[in-house]
Structures are given as C-alpha cells and as structure tokens.
Automatic annotation (TrEMBL):
<dbReference type="GO" id="GO:0000175">
    <property type="term" value="F:3'-5'-RNA exonuclease activity"/>
</dbReference>
<dbReference type="GO" id="GO:0006139">
    <property type="term" value="P:nucleobase-containing compound metabolic process"/>
</dbReference>
<dbReference type="InterPro" id="IPR036691">
    <property type="entry name" value="Endo/exonu/phosph_ase_sf"/>
</dbReference>
<dbReference type="InterPro" id="IPR005135">
    <property type="entry name" value="Endo/exonuclease/phosphatase"/>
</dbReference>
<comment type="similarity">
    <text>Belongs to the CCR4/nocturin family.</text>
</comment>
<keyword id="KW-0378">Hydrolase</keyword>
<feature type="domain" description="Endonuclease/exonuclease/phosphatase">
    <location>
        <begin position="81"/>
        <end position="287"/>
    </location>
</feature>
<protein>
    <recommendedName>
        <fullName>Nocturnin</fullName>
    </recommendedName>
</protein>
<dbReference type="Pfam" id="PF03372">
    <property type="entry name" value="Exo_endo_phos"/>
</dbReference>
<dbReference type="InterPro" id="IPR050410">
    <property type="entry name" value="CCR4/nocturin_mRNA_transcr"/>
</dbReference>
Length: 316
C-alpha cells in the first residue's frame, strides 16, 4: 500500500498492548472518556483514500440518498450517525448469517468498509452498538480524527463465548471534541422489573463550544428477538427514568427553566407498534420534533441500520 497508508495501517493492524480488561461487573471497572491527546492527528481525506485503495477490488460504496432536515448556521447544525455495526465475533461465530458470504464478514476488509462509511459522512456524534473492536480499532482510529469516546460493554457478552474473540461487545459513543465539551457521562446496566439485565446504555452530557448550550446524547441496544417485548418495554422505561434524572440535573446545574435538548439513539429491536416505542413517544419528557422556534427534545428509535441525521439546532 506504500508509505501513504502507514498511519491507518498501523492503527488497524496492531493489537493494542494493554492489560486485560476487568469484567464489566467488577467494581474496579470504570470506563471513561477516551481521547489520546498524544496521538498524532490524522487527515480524514487521506484516511478515506487509504480505505478506498484497500477496498478497490470490492463493489463500489453504496450511495445513500439522505433527506436534509434543517438548514442554517453550521454552528447550530449537528450531524449524527447511528449504527449497529455487528459484533465481529457474533457475525463469524454465533449469529449464523447463512445467506451472507464469509468473505463479506472478513474483518481484514470489513473494518475498512466501516471506516469508509464514517469518513464519508464525517458525523459530529457517532452512536454505535455491537462494538467488539473498540480498543484495537474504533477508539485509536477515531481518536486520531479528534473524537472523544466512551465504551460500555455488556456484562455477559455472547462474544466471550466465541473462540479468539476480541472481548465483549457493547455500546460506544464518539463526539468531536473540538465542537463539544464533555460535562458528564453515565454508564447504565438497564433493569427490568427491578432486575439487572444484559443490555446497557450510555448517557453523555455535552456542551457546544460555539453556542455554550448543554445537551444530552444517549445510546442503547435493547433485547433482541420476538418474545421479549415485555423485557424491552421495561428496559426502555428504565432508560427513560434515567434520562429524566439526567435532564433534571442538567437543568439544575445550568440554572435554566428551558428543556434540555435530548437525543436518544439506539437499536431498540422493536416494531413501532410495541410498548417500548409508544412509551418513548408519550413520555413526560415531551419527545417531539422541534421547529425553528422551539427547543424541544429529539429521539431516534432505529433498528439495525446506519443513519445520518443533520439539522438539529440548539441556538434558536
């Protein structure tokens, strides 16, 4: 690939040398906001060219037609990517993608495909589920692009049952630290009927450096498969309760009587007819689409797709 690809290749090819992670249920496990300030910054356009060079023999990148949801001052517009990226260990070892060619699941190329999508759309905030290559791919590469991040693994990740796994999968949240300042991050192990479950969420409070407005972003991945609708509903209710607490705390700390903007991204594994969807839509948080005259709350309930949303305004 030549010397021009050395920065990306080194980040993707090496195994990060670090002690083994404690079990997520261990009280000593304290995942924080990861940003390697000593890491040399990378040129996103150069990295995108490197990805395309590696993938030159694969089918062309899918061209997606996105709907523009807002217009105006770039300082007031935030681009968000929501994506269940599929845990590599599950794709290869457990989920039985019988109609998917194995070469499509080859991590040596699939990691470049994932990065190509991220680099193409350059989101300000990235919310991911089923991340099991956080420390050896997502975190170091995205940190070199200026993203600060947080990772919350599942307590009993099925990835750990796969031979030669890369650790547990979980949710990860990334944000452009030049645009936003991190005020607080909460990692949740979601409960259902007062019992802890295997699903998690991250709630991060950010401040826009340009407008000084504080807002909240959450990412989660609820229980999958038919027959677990009641559990999903209970997990959603637990997340809503925590979101209310965080929103109230921000309002107190910011000394404002204006609703704190809230963005919820995730793979809810739910049909729109399920209770978990209705509970979010009718929540006391008032999760309504905002207009150009109203600062309201936003929510995203997306299912195993990649999506970019641009047009959220916080300085109206």
């Amino acid at each position: 690939m030549g010397s021009s690809t050395s920065s990306l290749y080194s980040a993707l090819a090496k195994t990060v040398s670090r002690p083994a992670l404690p079990h997520p249920c261990d009280s000593t496990y304290n995942p924080g906001n990861d940003l390697d300030l000593d890491q040399d910054p990378a040129d996103p356009l150069e990295l995108l060219r490197e990805c395309r060079e590696v993938l030159r023999n694969r089918p062309a990148q899918l061209q997606r037609a996105f709907v523009q949801t807002g217009h105006g001052d770039a300082r007031q517009t935030i681009r968000i990517m929501q994506w269940n990226v599929l845990a590599q260990a599950l794709g290869e070892g457990m989920d039985s993608f019988v109609q998917c060619p194995m070469d499509a699941l080859n991590w040596a190329e699939r990691k470049y495909l994932i990065l190509q999508e991220i680099l193409t759309y350059r989101p300000d905030i990235i919310c991911l589920q089923e991340v099991d290559h956080y420390f050896d791919m997502f975190q170091p590469v995205l940190a070199s692009l200026g993203y600060q991040s947080s990772f919350c693994p599942k307590p009993w990740s099925p990835c750990l049952d796969v031979e030669n796994n890369n650790g547990p999968d979980g949710c990860a949240l990334f944000f452009n630290h030049k645009r936003f300042q991190s005020l607080n991050t909460t990692h949740l192990r979601l409960s259902a009927m007062m019992l802890k479950t295997n699903q998690v969420a991250i709630i991060t409070t950010l401040r826009c450096r340009a407008t000084e407005r504080a807002f909240c972003v959450a990412v989660t991945h609820l229980k999958a498969r038919s027959g677990w609708e009641v559990l999903r509903s209970a997990q959603g209710s637990d997340l809503l309760r925590n979101l209310r607490n965080v929103a109230q705390r921000i309002e107190t700390e910011e000394k404002t009587d204006t609703d704190v903007p809230l963005i919820v991204c995730g793979d809810f594994n739910a049909e729109s007819s399920e209770d978990v969807y209705r509970n979010f839509a009718t929540s006391s948080l008032g999760l309504d689409m905002c207009t150009n005259k109203t600062v309201a709350l936003w929510y995203f309930i997306l299912t195993k797709i990649k999506y970019v949303w641009e047009g959220i305004k916080f300085c109206l």
